[in-house]
Design brief:
Layout: H1 2-5, H2 18-28, H3 34-41, H4 45-58
Helix pairs in contact: 2-4, 3-4
Length: 66
């Protein structure tokens, strides 16, 4: 049960642009849909998805210690 309640932790690379980081944050922390992100940032929906995919490819998930 604790795993479900605990938010995911990510390490963002410096390689990520500010726009990619913001889209990634809005998607995971704020739980926004791609349409909501597109509207909030006034970007094309396809561009938002492309930037999210780029950002997702650049993240590193910390290893869990048991």
């Amino acid at each position: 049960m604790q795993l479900i309640a605990k938010p995911a932790e990510f390490k963002l690379n410096n390689e990520m642009t500010a726009e990619e980081a913001e889209i990634f944050r809005m998607r995971y922390e704020l739980q926004y849909s791609f349409d909501q992100i597109s509207e909030a940032l006034q970007l094309d929906g396809g561009q938002v998805r492309k930037l999210f995919i780029n950002a997702h490819a650049k993240i590193k998930v910390p290893k869990k210690t048991a």
